[in-house]
Design brief:
Helix 2 crosses helix 12 and helix 9 packs across helix 10. Helices cover 40% and strands 18% of the residues. The protein is an alpha/beta fold and 460 residues long.
């Protein structure tokens, strides 16, 4: 396998910025030495997370998922998947075999249910599941189901996960600390009108890995780079001191790293900037998820805005004149970075449209070149930090050829993120290793169904 690599990585920095702009942006540019140190520190932090004695104080928790087997491409049958991770959730019906097909429907979670009693949430989910099954005339068939539940959980088995805390605007009472699979099963039982057997519960990173492993047998890691970031990878049981399951074959388990918290103990302070400190202080979770705040879509646009505001204040952009919109926190969306960098070098069409949306109507070509340079610095840093994380996982996996499943809006929509990552990963992995980054299509849903399929295969 070969990596997809741009022939001229230098083109990611397009028009040369003004010297003072370049100087101010310099602290966002990471050297090879910086990135190698990030790799070394992350490797140590992962070991702490996997260690029985060190895990309680570790920032990267490295939860065993209890998913030990990957699809082999021979799975057959019909499987349901339930994918809950935000204000909408999906129900999917997946047919595996000689002909594969997928049918799905999206259901809303109304605001009152998001903040109401826990039983109300699971009753709503069960009602939608029953409706989905009835519409497809699946009758009394016992349907194996995989459950993607993308909230922080402590997993205690393949079908047991206790919610640690709600995020993303959910505040359903009576759920934290309880097993979400049992709550779902109880809601289904209260209805009594559909037959479902929950075969596995997982998060979106694990679903991403499993989904790609169905097509690529050498897939060993799953990465999310979207609104947030997380990663999972296949680890040898002998390295997982936290493991409390059986020691039968296979001697491996997927580890949910929860690597967004990398750096929460200060180990990344050597590369953090004033912009990172500002964003952290103004966030709803100061001091937490610091790696995520340097990489993910929730924060990249705001990092760029803060740099731009500084350049305006120092008279280096827009003749020193800002706008009311630009001064508003969060007004420079992360999607703007992708759109600005989608312009061909020397062409600033997207950039001008965006600046006009921000109330900046008289930007010069030089202004546009400088804004683009800021965007390039922010996105390159994010891609390189993500690449460092992937390189550490590849080096730990230690196989000659590995596919890495990747999903998330930043990876999916930024025009150069894939190439930036592959270019940097190739510098940071051990000599002779080969890898490929594979976009995971419908990973969190399809992956859940495949977990159910593998579990069903093994129970026969």
């Amino acid at each position: 396998m070969t990596t997809k690599k741009d022939d001229d990585v230098s083109r990611y920095f397009t028009s040369p910025p003004a010297p003072l702009v370049r100087e101010i942006c310099e602290e966002l540019i990471l050297s090879q030495e910086n990135l190698k140190e990030v790799c070394d520190v992350l490797h140590e932090e992962l070991n702490k997370g996997l260690g029985k004695d060190t895990n309680p104080e570790a920032t990267i928790k490295c939860f065993p998922t209890y998913v030990r087997e990957l699809p082999n491409g021979k799975e057959k049958g019909r499987f349901l998947a339930l994918d809950l991770g935000g204000t909408n959730f999906r129900v999917l019906l997946i047919q595996l075999g000689e002909k594969c097909s997928m049918d799905s429907r999206i259901y809303a979670v109304p605001q009152p249910i998001m903040v109401g009693p826990g039983d109300g949430l699971f009753d709503h989910i069960a009602e939608c599941l029953a409706s989905f099954i009835k519409e497809r005339e699946l009758g009394d068939e016992l349907l194996p189901l995989g459950f993607t539940f993308s909230f922080p959980c402590k997993q205690e088995g393949l079908t047991k996960a206790r919610l640690a805390r709600w995020t993303k605007g959910f505040k359903c009472a009576g759920v934290e600390g309880r097993d979400v699979v049992e709550l779902l099963k109880a809601a289904i039982a209260r209805r009594g009108d559909c037959r479902i057997k929950v075969m596995g519960v997982l998060n979106d990173a694990t679903g991403c890995l499993i989904s790609c492993a169905f097509a690529k047998q050498n897939c060993r890691a799953g990465i999310i780079i979207g609104t947030g970031t997380n990663a999972c990878y296949m680890e040898k049981l002998e390295k997982v001191e936290l493991w409390d399951g059986d020691l039968d074959e296979p001697h491996q388990v997927i580890i949910n790293t929860e690597w967004g918290a990398f750096g929460d103990n200060g180990c990344l302070d050597f590369i953090r900037t004033e912009y990172d400190n500002n964003i952290d202080c103004e966030s709803i979770n100061p001091g937490r998820q610091l790696y995520e705040k340097m990489i993910s879509g929730m924060y990249m646009g705001e990092i760029a805005r803060q740099v731009i505001i500084r350049l305006v204040a120092e008279g280096l952009l827009f003749d020193g004149k800002s706008s009311e919109i630009l001064e508003e926190k969060g007004s420079f969306f992360t999607k703007y970075i992708s759109e600005i960098e989608s312009d061909k070098p020397g062409d600033y069409n997207n950039c001008r449209v965006i600046l006009e949306e921000l109330g900046l109507n008289s930007a010069t070509d030089t202004d546009c070149a400088n804004v683009r340079h800021v965007c390039e610095c922010v996105s390159r840093r994010a891609a390189y930090l993500a690449a460092a994380g992937v390189a550490v996982l590849l080096n730990r996996i230690g196989e000659e050829s590995v596919t890495v499943a990747v999903d998330g809006s930043v990876y999916r929509f930024h025009p150069h993120f894939h190439n930036l990552m592959t270019e940097q990963i190739s510098h940071l992995i051990k000599p002779g290793m080969k890898f490929g980054l594979m976009l995971s299509e419908d990973g969190s849903g399809r992956g859940a169904a495949l977990v159910a399929a593998v579990a069903s295969r093994n129970s026969r």
